[in-house]
Design goal:
- This protein is an all-alpha fold.
- Helices cover 78% and strands 0% of the residues.
- α3 packs parallel to α5 and α7 (112-134) crosses α8 (139-160).
- The longest helix has 29 residues, at 51-79.
- The protein is globular, with a radius of gyration of 15 Å.
Length: 162
């Protein structure tokens, strides 16, 4: 799985295809997102955290992944006439999720704010590939789905403060 996550971060097509066709793609995706958030909280906070914080960060990551996948699916399938299913979109978006860990490294090179922004941009690029594979969209439509899905995700997070 680690090799697939690295290949997904490099925006290679095959890890996304593997996640879409996998029988347990969504379950595997949930594990990837949960572990990524666990690593984020442990490495960012070090040893100074409570169990509640870990659970909250993991659940927040899982809910965010579901919302982002849903927004990309709705834009790609309903507005851009893509094919595919919501579970396949969830599975595909999950494999690129570990790129958010790059913010932990980038914060030593650039301002932490910009580290998060660059990491988020990289995530949108992986979502672009996920939309291409899961929704069978061409490059332009997949880019539209990824960007509009990301914007819708940010709006939902802002409105509901999740």
């Amino acid at each position: 799985m680690l090799t697939n996550a690295i290949r997904a971060a490099l925006v290679r097509r095959d890890p996304y295809v593997r996640m879409v066709v996998a029988v347990d793609g969504v379950a595997d995706g949930a594990i990837i997102v949960a572990v990524t958030n666990l690593v984020l909280v442990v490495l960012y906070l070090g040893g100074d955290f409570e169990a509640f914080v870990i659970v909250r960060v993991i659940l927040d990551g899982l809910i965010g992944w579901i919302v982002l996948s849903g927004m990309v699916y709705l834009v790609g399938r309903r507005l851009l006439d893509g094919y595919g299913s919501f579970p396949s979109t969830m599975a595909a978006t999950s494999i690129g999720y570990p790129v958010v860990l790059s913010a932990l490294v980038l914060r030593f090179v650039v301002d932490p704010y910009w580290a998060v922004q660059l990491s988020s941009l990289w995530l949108v690029v992986t979502v672009w590939m996920a939309a291409r594979v899961a929704l069978e969209l061409d490059a332009r439509k997949a880019a539209i789905a990824a960007v509009l899905g990301w914007v819708a995700y940010l709006i939902v997070r802002t409105v509901f403060r999740v």
